[in-house]
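Section 3.1: Structural characterization of target chains.
Under the original work plan, the team committed to producing a structural model for every single-chain target entering the pipeline before any wet-lab resources were allocated. The record below documents one such target. The sequence was received from the expression subgroup and is listed exactly as submitted; it comprises 234 residues.
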Amino acid sequence: MSAVEKAFHGLRHMIATGRLGPGERIPPEGELCEELGVSRGSLREAVRMLAALGVIEPRHGSGTYVSRLRPEDVIGSLSLTLELLPLSGLLEVYEIRRVLEAHVAAQAAARSTPETVRTLFSLIEEMENADDPALASELDHRFHAEIARVGGNPTLASLLSVFRARSRKYQVFTLPEGSALRAKSDEDHRALAGAIADRDPVAAAGAAQAHVAQTERWLRTFTPPVENDEGTPG
């Protein structure tokens, strides 16, 4: 184990065991280096690694603190590694997405309000009228993010946002078949929003699962190129 790894795991153990709690300032460098048996350089690199994961927050002029350790923030850091997955790895993730998207859609249907319904159909109309693929992709993300938000679990919403961000790297709507695929995606969105408007959790779960499965099939069939964040639906 390298000195950096030793420092990293030492700090992680302090946080995991509760010795350092959310929001607490970590001990001075000298004390930590002596306790962990590492140099200041190794300790600082470990702190940078934990900061990238959202676990530690260096505050200029104040010191270094354990973050609030909110589950949604820690889950969000998965984007650092998930975005490294090749398409084959991403497709394995889709099985998880199907389950989670169905769950949050069912929860959203149970909690649906007239304002929720107006927001969802407004986003659908904007998507259908958008000529710019990047804008359509952003609106698609906002549509699914709104459903996850209404579902009521910020951690699930954060995890699904990470999953969707990775799939958006693959373009589909710019392929020769793009127009037909986009029309099918619009149809799926209306079915999902309709089930939520009807406050029908079972129908909403089914619509969400079918929509994610359809996107997975497109990725398997067309193997689109990786470009900017535009083109692939939810």
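The beta strands are 56-59, 63-66.
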